[in-house]
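A quick aside before the break. I want you to see a complete sequence-to-structure record at least once, exactly as it would be stored in a machine-readable document. Don't worry about memorizing anything.
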Amino acid sequence: MSFSKSPELLIFDCDGVLVDSELIATAVHIEALAKFGYIISAKEYNDRFIGMTDQKSYSVIESEGDLRLPEDHHECVMAEVASRYTRDLRAISGVQQTLETIKLKKCVASNSDAAKLSLALKVTDLHDYFWPHVFSASQVARGKPAPDLFLFAAENMDTPASSCLVIEDSVAGTQAAVAAGMMVIGFVGASHCLPGHGDKLMEAGATKLFSRMTALPQILAGL
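That is the input. The structure line, written in tokens, reads:
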């Protein structure tokens, strides 16, 4: 897909695009799962579950691990994630400069639940760049890789899907953007992006890749 004219709306994923959060959240998840005998490496967890809603990942894990996570599992995980975010979370390098440079309409559309998403943006001083245009998978029937969230964001921003450009770091998010009829560019500059990650994004439908957030204005100018 390519634009016949410049995009009207820029939709950012949050985790791994605006904030370098994936390794923090992954560590909490694998530590919590280990308590119930489900052992998984950070690399395997990232390969399989990044970009997926937590609820979907829990369902997969319970099925293949033949276990039942306690009802308060997600609540406990999120409490620990919040603690580590407050202490350790950082914005992606150069993201503030980039957001100030780009004059397009912007919003965030993330598979994170609303509380986690809001915390991530606030502790990294990014919240005011987007609020109130911050959309969570908790607001739609299906999270990524379904297109629901991106279509919901476009509708709320009064922009046709064909005029939206999505910035994503995950396969599920890239698939969701493609399914929504949106152009998607893959960001591979977060700490969880290992060699070969970009290839997966391109296979999922990304049209370009970039690893420095400060390069985004120039990429947009070339569309």
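Two observations worth writing down. Strands lie at 9-12, 105-110, 134-136, 164-168, 183-187, 208-210. The longest helix spans residues 73-88. We'll return to this after the break.
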